[in-house]
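TODO from last week: model Sensor histidine kinase.
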Amino acid sequence: MHKRFNELQKNYGQEYNFFVYLKEQEFFLNCSPISIPYSDYLELKEQVIANVEAGRDVYEKIYSKWMPVEIGGRYYITNIVPYHDSYMISLVSADHLIRPLRELNLGENGFVSLVDDRGQVLTSPISNNGERLGEERQSSFFPNLFKGGTTVNGEFTNASFHVKLVIQFGTFEKIMIAQLLILLLAVIITCSLGFILLYFRNKVLRPIKSFSYNLAFWTEEGESLAFEGSKIIELERANKQFMNLVDQIKKFKIDLYERELEKQRIQLDYMKLQINPHFFLNCLTNIYSMAQMQLYREIEQMALSTSRYFRYIFQNDGDFVKLRDEIEHVRIYLDIQKHRYPDALAYRIEERDLLGDARIPPLVLQTFVENAVKYAVSRVSQVQIELAVRLRQEAGEERLVIRIADTGPGFPPEILECLQNGSPLDQSAGNHIGIMNTLQRLASLYSGQAAVSFSNREDGGACVILSLPASAGTNRSVAV
């Protein structure tokens, strides 16, 4: 339990405190390093023991629910979970809990706070500009905020308090004004186009139509005009050809516009892959843990690998990179993951020196290797990840064949069926973005000449095989 609480504190931060209380043994102890003063610790201990000795009404009100408590003149959020005669307690400062919300731009006079069910403010009164408000100014200043700004209340599940945001001339108001201006501009443009079309119809189309009607059906003697020997037939044919040309141009513009939108969407997804704050935070957490254990050599290696990893991501802005650089980036990524899972991950990379100068799109191998680490690595057994690069002749053309395999559980049947059939994966929950983005990038950069196959190995694990033209990227933009 002590080890588990330490892992929780490493993941969530030093500000989260964990305690355990054994009623029969009258034993109360912190299960991880505490960040509160010792006097607050003693007062917390007295409150927990008093709540345990209280009646059933108190029990049903506070246990297994997040409740605010006042300790040493400050408010904390605590959760007491009973198990027979044992009680596990989690404690975090109310100010720390809403620290990310205070980083939002709520305007110069905007603020955010936690409020209990009685309307009592649980956090320090600090405005968005960082100024601490005193009691006198708070009583006269806050009502003005509610009149001039916007108030947003958010409830928490299984808690007896809620969060209140007061937005005063901040980002949200600016977004609203921008949306109104855009809407007004769209209305003006629509009205202008309507007037232009009406003018064009009355001044151009209607006279031409009347003139064409008179020429097509009547001669000077009032007889129908012969189309075969008339120049009007040629004019009509030219008009039809012109209209067909206009229709083709419209279709071409629509297709080009849709392609441009798709390209921008793919580039946006690619930028999302480039910035991975969750992975970066995990690296910092591992370095912090190594520092606590005084593993200085491991800290140096981890910090160097992390810096090289992100330097490669942010410096590569071209369509193609050298294969040896991409493989080196994958090796750095796997080394970082080995620091996280020292006994659960092993890898092997097979490459030939002659293939190092070949060009491939950046972060393609990274995407599939990262997917293997995410879904295959566990703490139950060690997982082996293999990366092999070969050169193969297919239909008189040299192609790079890259195989990425692991010994994990493999692709789920429904996911594997979609990948083999070329069906899009569900990305509504934020999953599978990397794989779908990579497949679209390969199709765009290689003009449909790239092939990717997915399968599950007979002895367990997933396998991805990429077949790419070896000569691609020589005449394209290459990242340095």
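Done. The chain has a mean pLDDT of 77.
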